[in-house]
Structure formats: C-alpha cells, structure tokens
Amino acid sequence: MKSSASAILFAVAASALLSSARPTSDKRLFGSDTANDMNDVLSGNAACKDVAVIFARGTFDSGNMGVWVGPQFQTALQSQISSLAFQGVDASAYPATLDSYLAEEGSDSGSASLAATVTNYASACPDSALIISGWSQGALVAHKGLALLAPEVQAKVAALTVFGDPHNLFSTDGIPDGVALHSECFGGTTLDPLCSTLPTDFKFPTSISDITGPFRSLPSLASGVSETAAAVSLVARFPGQLIKSAGAFFDDVTDTSKIQRLLLSPQHFMYGNSGLTTSAATFVAGLPAVAGK
C-alpha cells in the first residue's frame, strides 16, 4: 500500500512546480522539431537516400524529433553525409509520455511505428544503409523497435545510436549480431544517472521533491529560444505527468532497484549542446555500410 506520507510529498512537489512554471503551447517557439524525410520517400515525393536515420525523441519532447537532441543530430549528420534521410518517429503513435516510459518501459506503440517505418523504407530502398537512433525514452523505443524487425530487415540496419540510454535499467537484452552500437552517456563529475554506473557514494533522493526539484534549473541551462520554451513547458508538465502515472511512479519510488530509472537530471538534456551529437554523427559516417556509399 502506498504511504500517505509519500502521497503528501508528491502533492507538495507537484503543487510547487505548477506554481513556479508557466506552460507554453506556442509551436512557433519550438523551431524545427519535425523531420519526415523517410515519409517523403515512401510517399513518392523524394528519391531514396544512401543513408536513412530514424530518431525517437525523449519523454515530453515535441514534434516527432524534439528539440533537445534530434535537430542537433540531424544537423551533424547532414554536415558529414550528403545523401541523408532523417525521420522522427510518428508523434501520433509515440506521444512520448512519462506513463509509457514507466509502465511500458518505452512506448510499445512508438516501437511498433518505428519498426513499420524502417521495414517499409527497407523495402522501398533496399540499397540504403539504415540507422536507428533515440534519446532517453526514445533510446528504449529504438531498442524495442529494432527487436521487432524481421531478421532480413535487421540485416540492413548498420547501427543503433543512442543518447542517455536507460536500457540497462530495464532489460539485459542485447542487440542483433551485425548491428553496431554507439552510446553517448555523460560520466564522471557530470554523470547522467539514467545511463551511468553510479558511484558507491551516490546520494539517492529521499523524497519526490528531490526528483522533481532539479527540473527548475532547466530553463537556465537551455540553449536558444526553442530549448528554453521546451524547458519551461517541461517544468510545467512534469507534475501532471507524474499524477497520470502515479501507480507506476510510486512502484518505482518504493523499489530501490528501480529508483535509478527516475533520476532525471539537467545533464540528461544536454546531449545536443555538448558536441556528442557530432561525435555520434562521425561514428555513423565512418561505418563501412555508410562510408562506402
């Protein structure tokens, strides 16, 4: 049974965050958060590209590729690969909610949508090198989507490229043979708890406000108008998402083996502003299946 003390802490934290943030729904503030290059090819509006990348955004992110990592990764890839199709996972199939992160361990419908897009593209463009990618919950969607592919389609996937990947907190499953893995994760003094091995002296949160509190600083760390607007919206939406996901949330809070899944930090949102998307793009461009195009 959930304790009344935990419920009170949850309510206080949610109330405090709601009162300290102003949500925004103006899509103009988010800039380019959508990419549909693979869809354009599949609809006959563009020719096949040598390399196709499908990207799953993280929880709360907007559009179909978000603003925190997707656009930066797209730009970095475009600077190194001339014939590129970049695609975000369908937002209608993958709303990127906290509920799907906690209860489904990465959106089931988002994973299915990713797999369907990759399968259709592989059929339409059999000579293209395919890359599956994701950040945060999107990394879970990328793993699950890759696993859903038929073996003959998996064989066309050159790499799984992930950022802030919490996969090891949910599963011990590996990736198919022949698929290269590139994972970017902050470590050391700026570690990202969702993907790092925690030091023995790591201070775990002792209340719900310890988990939600760090988000208040996110707007000050954002880069540019798009990220700042997204950060303000995130701070405002987080309590409501927690309320909606209360069952799974409290299950994780009261299970010490799962609490690491909830350790979202400001660092987790900095992959697009740290040069790591460029490192990942360099890895992709150097893959034999890509470099040979």
What can you see in these coordinates?
The chain is of the alpha/beta class and 293 residues long. It is built from 13 helices and five strands. Strands 2-1-3-4-5 form a five-stranded parallel β-sheet, sandwiched between helices. Helix 1 packs antiparallel against helix 10 and helix 3 packs across helix 12. The chain is globular.
CATH architecture: 3-Layer(aba) Sandwich
Main β-sheet description:
5 strands, parallel
The span between the termini is 58 Å
Number of helices: 13
Q: Can you tell me the overall shape?
A: globular
Query: Tell me, what is the CATH class?
Result: Alpha Beta
* Helix share bin: 40-55%
The helix/strand series, from N terminus to C terminus, equals HHEHEHHEHHEEHHHHHH
Average pLDDT over all residues: 85
Strand content: 5-15%
Low-confidence stretches: 1-30
Spell out the CATH superfamily. Alpha/Beta hydrolase fold, catalytic domain
Radius of gyration: 19 Å
The number of strands is: 5
Strand arrangement within the widest β-sheet reads 2-1-3-4-5
Structural class: alpha/beta
Counting structural domains, the number is 1
